[in-house]
Amino acid sequence: MNERATDPPDPYQRLAAVIAEQAPQRTGVVVAFSGGPDSTLLLHLAAETLPRRRLRALHIHHGWHADADAWAEHCQQVARGLGLRCESVRVDAGAKRGEGPEAAAREARYTALAERLRPDEVLLTAHHRDDQAETLLLALLRGGGVHGWAGMPVCRTLGAGLHLRPWLDIPRDRLQTELHRRGIEGLDDPANADTDYDRVWLRERVLPVLRERHTEVDATLARAADQAGEAAAGVDSLAAHDFVSCRGTYAATLDCAALAALPVSRQRALLRCWIHRRGLPRPGAARLESLRRQLVEAAADRNPHVAWPGGEVRRWRGEAWVLAPAPPLDPEAVYDWTDPRQPQELPHRRVPPEALEALAGPLDESSHVQIRFRQGGERLPRRDGEGSIALKRWLADHGIPPWERDRIPLVYVDGDLIGAIGVPRP
After folding, report:
1. Cα–Cα distance between 145 and 408 in angstroms, integer?
2. Of 319, 325, 347, nearest to 409 (Cα)?
């Protein structure tokens, strides 16, 4: 027998309550505004709830539909009509190897939102209970573990700010009722009816059939997600404890021998937690198991490298590093540092003038300073003038992992190598 349904919360009241509870100290609010019905209602209610000076909108322009420019202009007009600012941000939503189009769009969207969220701001998105049910079913179909089954949290950190989903306990039809009551209309994205996408297939084909038999299936799945979230929190708590005993020499590394001493299930949990805490997407189950086995079983003289969309792990000297994919770098590039009093911008990092001064000391105004990268065979002159030492050996002695050595900026003054940024001179 189905449980007796209760009246869903009021969207306006729930929005105000979640902001007050989760982000009372945040002075700015950003609405992720696609222009669709749900986010349009969210923007209208936020404008009623908050002073205009505290509120702004962000529209992510994926560029994958012929009407994308018109959608962006529509969002600008709606925001202006409410007396709000709306920034439209173009993103590259192309899928990387091993990544589906939905995941690629989501990653591009949240990366752009995170980059534009200030420390005093909270981001609001219009996800609702039906979205939560779809998310749980997707995780089950994809073989996700307890973290996937937990679905979407009401509150999480995002970039420098917070991300809130205030409507996760409100069904879609309650939001539609509110839209009709207020006479508000949103854009219709054809992708929301394209059953080639797994989420849309679940929404249009699977969930309607489940509701015929179990009318409260959305609420049931939402409760299951809440319970999985509690279980995931327990797993993460144990993993955080294990990290203390498995911490490597460096703050964010793992000691592979200590990792191997844990039961296999706790090894997996620790790796998931470790990767997530570094702000990177967790690998799938098969890739995670490959990673675990290579870290704990590879011979001591091997340095395995496991990558997945959005992250990678490398082992060196018995420790594991988790890293974001490094941007490409031209190893033969040469950068003239024309004004050593100003920072030098490189494709992968920004070098402050203090770092140059630490290596070279005061420079004559006529000195020609360049940044280059390791080609092999370089030698660093000793400070006392008594010979030199191989750069490769010097970097290894100072704990610079092999994958970083070719990316460290080398400083040349008047054509002579004097040192590597961030590494003491011999």
Report:
1. 38
2. 347
Q: What CATH code is carried by the domain that includes residue 136? A: 3.40.50.620
Return the minimum-mean-pLDDT range out of 83-87, 211-215, 277-281. Answer: 277-281
Q: Which DSSP category does 154 fall into?
A: S
Q: Are residues 351 and 375 in the same domain?
A: yes
232 belongs to a structural domain: no
For residues 309 and 97, the answer to whether their CB atoms sit within 8 Å is yes
Indicate the pairing of strand 344-345 with strand 350-351: antiparallel
Q: Does 310 share its domain with 345?
A: no
Provide the 8-state DSSP code for 116.
T
Enumerate residues 6+ apart whose C-beta is below 8 A from 52: 82, 83, 84
Distance CA 177, CA 45 (A): 14
- Give residue 1's pLDDT: 35
Token pair, residue 358, equals: 């630490």
Token pair in block for residue 268: 């997996």
Instruction: Tell me the mean pLDDT in the region 146-171.
Output: 92
Q: What is the mean pLDDT of residues 112-119?
A: 91
Per DSSP, 197 falls in state S
CATH number at residue 307: 1.20.59.20
Question: What is the rounded distance in angstroms from the CA atom of residue 412 to the CA atom of residue 168?
Answer: 57
- Pair 344, 336: CB distance under 8 Å: no
Q: Which domain holds residue 311?
A: 247-323
- Residues 348, 329: Cα–Cα separation, whole Å: 7
Tell which residue, 316, 318, 321, has the closest CA to residue 275. Answer: 321
Check residue 277 and give its pLDDT.
86
Which residues, including other chains, have CB under 8 Å from residue 324's CB and lie 6 or more apart? 278, 279, 280, 310, 311, 312
Give residue 2's pLDDT band: very low, low, confident or very high (50, 70, 90).
Answer: very low
224 domain-assigned: no
The number of folded domains in the chain is: 3
Q: Is residue 65 part of a domain?
A: yes
The reply to whether 199 and 340 lie within a common domain is no
Task: Check residue 4 and give its pLDDT.
Answer: 44
∠ CA(108), CA(114), CA(116), 5° rounding? 105
Q: Mark whether 63 and 208 lie in a shared domain.
A: yes
> Is 199 within 8 Å of 102 (Cβ atoms)?
yes
State the CB neighbour count (10 A cutoff) for residue 387: 9
pLDDT surpasses 80 at 104: no
